[in-house]
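Attaching the record inline, Q. Sequence:
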Amino acid sequence: MNVNKALTIAGSDSGGGAGIQADLKSFQELGVFGMSALTAVTAQNTTGVQGVFPMDADAVVSQIQSIGEDLPPDAVKTGMLFNAEIIERVSREIERYQWKNIVIDPVMIAKGGASLLQKEAISAMKEYLIPLSMIITPNIPEAEVLTGANINTAAGKKEAARKLHEMGAKHVIIKGGHDDTADYASDLLFDGEEFYEFTSKRFGTRNTHGTGCTYSAAITAGLADGLPVPVAVERAKDFIKAAIEDDLGLGNGHGPTNHWAFNRRKKGTVTNDL
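Structure, as predicted:
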């Protein structure tokens, strides 16, 4: 039996909606065997982040090496890496094992506003990690931080994508979820030559915790299965659209998305009647 594998290098979300929990759920739903290297433990729920406890960089590296020596992944996703040392050392291990299908979700700020990436880590991400990426998936605020651009127009999104490509990312996706002036969420993909747009209806829900993690994990699963980048992105867009639309209504704040929704729709099952 040929089973493709994906590795997530990210933080833990005790509430289960984001981080490695969202990544592993997404990998599983899309038929990819998921593995993880933990960078931090967060105490959080739908109302916010109550604490962030980073792992020692040696512990992060040891986890990656255990995977690399025995379970080489077909694709790798990075999420919350927290600080410059972890970013640099994770990048070195990716280079060491010559992993190619690298998806960077540059997690910086939680839904509730808590910072999940130290400021000095931004330069480390630009120098060490972005040049290794097959795809980087910032939302608009993250793209603004990484590029220094003010993104408030379609032209601004394209310019930011070009800047991130110049930093070394082979493909750039500027996510449109934060552009709440439109009735549709439009994600812009740039491959260095052409722009592609992936659009879905915007849903009136506050239950969007973990959307970035879930979307990038779904893309990673597609790359692990050998899908071309545009195809992997299109399937991931369908996956996150279903997860947001059929939300679970959990918690008192920004609730999690529904990782079952995509497959239950395909089976004709009512997804939010659990």
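The chain has a mean pLDDT of 91. The beta strands are 5-13, 33-45, 48-54, 75-78, 102-104, 135-136, 171-174, 184-190, 195-201.

More tomorrow.
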